[in-house]
Structure formats: C-alpha cells, structure tokens
Amino acid sequence: MSELVSRRPQRGGRAARQAARAQATGNEAIHAGLPGGRYRPLTDADMAQVHGAALTVLERTGLKDPIPELLDIVLPKGARLNEHGRLCFPRALMEDLLDGVASEFYVHARGDRAGKDDMHCTAQNVYFANSGTAVTTFDANTKSFRPSTLRDIYDFTRLVDRLENIHMLGDTVLATDVTDDYAHDMNMVYAMLAGSQKPACLTFRAREHIPHAIRLFDHASGGEGSFLKKPSVIFGGCPVVSPLRFGKENLEIMIDTAKLGLTVDLAVPPQAGATSPATLAGTLAQSVAETLACVAIVNLITPGCPIVFAAWPFITDLRTGSFTGGSGEQALISAAAIQMGNFYNMPTSVGCGMTDAKLPDAQYGLEKALTFTLAAHAGANRLCEFGGMLGSLMGCSFESMVIDDEAGGMILRTLRGIEVSDETLAVDVIHSCAIEPGHFLGNTHTLDHMTSEFVFPELMDRERTDTWEREGRTDLFDRARAKADTILDSHFPNHFGAADAYVREEFPIILGAEEMKRRAPRPQPKEGAA
C-alpha cells in the first residue's frame, strides 16, 4: 500500500472559497461538443443488415419524381432510371460514394462568438440545436396557443442568445403573419441574424431566395464574400417525401447548396405505420435509404461536399394515426438512426424532445428526458427540435425553451462521464476526512472540484420543503417564466450593427429598428380566465 500523504495546504481563505462555492454554476463541468456514442441499440450485425436493406431499396425500388435537372446530373455518373421511371442507385455506385463522404466540417459563429462558439461537426460530437417551425406559440399570460409571428422568431432567437446549452439557432417558429414567400424567408433570416451570432441552420421556400440570403449573410458577417469564406449557416429542408419520392422545391435547394459547396442539411422523416413500415427496423431501413439517396446526389454534384446524415424516422400512434414525438419507440428509433450515421462516419442530426404534451408537465419531462438522453448518448452531432417544442411540434414556448436549456446542461454532464485518476479517487482525502472532522464539506479538495464535477441548475428546486413554502411555492414553469422574462425584457441585440440601414434599403424588412429595442406588448388574459 502506498504511503498516505498529508492533506494539501489550503489555497486562499476559507471565506473566499465558500463565497465562490455559493456563486458556482457548474459550467466548468460541461462544454459543447462532448462525445456521445455509448448507447448502441443496434449490434454490428444489425447495422450491416440495415445497410444492406437500404442499398437494396435504392438499387431495386428507387425514388419517384426525379426532376430533369437531377437526371442530367446523376444519370451520366452511374445512376439509372428503372422501368417505372424511378431513379435508382446501383449498389457499387453507393459503396464508392460512401467511401468519399465528408466526415467532418465546421459551422462558424460570427462576431464576438467567432472561434469559441464554432461547431465542429463530426460523428458523435454532441450539440443542441433549435428548429421546428411551430405554427403556434404558447402565451403564458393567456395560457393558450396563438399563431406564431415574425416577432416571435426574433424573440426566440434573442432568448436563445442568452442560453448557454443551446448551441445552434434554427427556425423554431413560422412567421404566419408574413404570407409572401420571399418576404418570409428574408425576414426570417434577418430576425435570426439580428438576434444572435451563434451558428444557424435555416430553411428556404424557394431556390431563388438563396443568393439573396447569402447577401444578407454577408451583411451580418463582415462584408461581401465573407460568408462563403466562413459559413455560419447551413441550409436545411426535406428533399424526400416518404415513401421514396422527391419533393421538388427542397430538392432544388439541395442541388443549389451542393453546387455552392456549402453544408447540406436535410431531414427525412418517414412515419412508422403511415409512410413507412410499422416495424421499427423497416422504417429505419427506409429512412436510411432515403437519406443515402440525398448523400449520393450531393456527392455526385460536388464530391466530398459536407452533408448531414439526417435520417429522422418518426413514430405514428396507430390508434389515431397521429405523429407521436415523445414515445419510447421514438427515442429508440432515433438512437438507431444516429447509430447508422455513425456507421457511415458522418455528422448526424435527429429530431428529439418532440413531446406530445401541451404544457411543461410530468408527461413533458418524461418524454423530453427520454428522447434527449438516448439521442445524446447515441452520439447525435445535433439534437434538433431541442428547445421549447410542445404539442408534437405544433407549438413552442419561451418558458419551455429555458427549461430545455437547463436540461441540456444536465445531459451534457452525463455525456462527460466519470474521470478516474489518483486526484479524483481521493484516497488521501478519504483518509484525512474520515478521521477528522468526519465530513468533506469544507475540505479544499471538495471546493477545488466543485465546479468541475457538478452542474448546478438554476431552475431545478433543491430547497427544503419549508423553504419552498416560505418562498412562494413556485413550480418549474414559474421559475422558467421569470428567467425568460428577465432576458426578454432586457436583451435587444441587432448584430447587423451599422449595416442595418443598408439591409433595410435592399430587403423588405418588416421589423422596425425602434420596435426591436423594446418588448412587444403581451396579450392579457381574458376576464374570468384561470
């Protein structure tokens, strides 16, 4: 047995250390991009079978409705049309293309966040990202859902700008008050780039909008040409409509994105029992096939072009035919889809946290925790739909966004795992404290490791019951609402800065410059409402 050494000398005053402990947040214990991949619902043999099934589907069945532009690109390079006019990808072609896929890329942050908040996208580096395009927003004053607006896009973005565990922006809600497609896309881009300098993933309604959006990105990134040098946005969409059919508009956007050499994001969401087989394995195989078709097209256009493996198999409640995003089956099949992306050594994304609950209640907590945790531990590069989503992606909530951000910190801590070393095993500290004083609370070792071992949630209630009674009996929603209100009442960024005036001359910007400096009026509850 090694000789026990005396306890290390105290460093600094006890009062100073205790004050530091009182202010601890635990942020040293976590960081963005921690590796996942320990949860593996599929065996190696299972993955090989799914891969084989997906290639058979692509070779034999193929995809319906390929547009002429696509055929001009892929047919001379080895794809073929079958007797039904469906675009098929021979197995040998797919194997060759998969050998050359991009295994990593960066999505850059802008301005003061550049560098430190860049996203390194690889297989298994875990980040949390917003998205969802919810058509309604939950209003805490009226306790009801109302149509989402352009102002909501800006407000959700500036809220996320102050939330540490949501690493990427997305179009969380839809601006239902902007009906013109071009105006919608440009104003969505403007509201998000004004509200935060975090990396972003955006969708567009038409390919013609991409060059205009790139000019907006340049205005927000430092001038003409700056965006393409360090892309801070990836372009998303759903180029495949299950089962196995191309969607024209999103396919065109994917083609143009690949021609630019920009990162192609996508989502392929077949629903088990509705637009894909009722069996989880069958839905997984179809989703992988549909995703690999996109991977093939992008790499036939620009070899090695970065693309996200985004198989998003969804679950249907076969009693009602409705999508159910919070089920145990959803958590399981999402993890399996991530595992298949890791099989191809590609950065992945997956939809998770898609609770079916309408409020942050017990169902909400159960469904979010299950889907978040399994997706993260399966090694999803991006957990999308992460923040604030309610009602099977139909609604979003500012309060839920704050709650989910806090959950993200706790999940990241589980990803980091347990560090085992002589220092952390603390044999000498055990010996010293067990003899005198009989506890570890004031020991230097405890204070030194407090913020590196533990995450300290801001919203979770860990007080005694009598303290909770005395301080107003608040629940999680109350505390989340208070935090969201604090941010939304005080944080009004416009990261276009001096370029804002030029942007307003060139684009049909709807949000007023002065309007963005104050909080929008909030609806009041109707008389007699609870």
UniProtKB/TrEMBL annotation:
Coiled coil: none annotated. InterPro entries: MttB-like_sf, MTTB_MeTrfase. Gene3D superfamilies: Trimethylamine methyltransferase-like. Residues 12-24 have a biased composition (Low complexity). GO terms for molecular function: methyltransferase activity. It comes from the Bacteria. The keyword Transferase applies. One of its GO terms (biological process) is methylation. Keywords: Methyltransferase, Transferase. Belongs to the trimethylamine methyltransferase family. This is Trimethylamine methyltransferase. It comes from Albidovulum aquaemixtae.
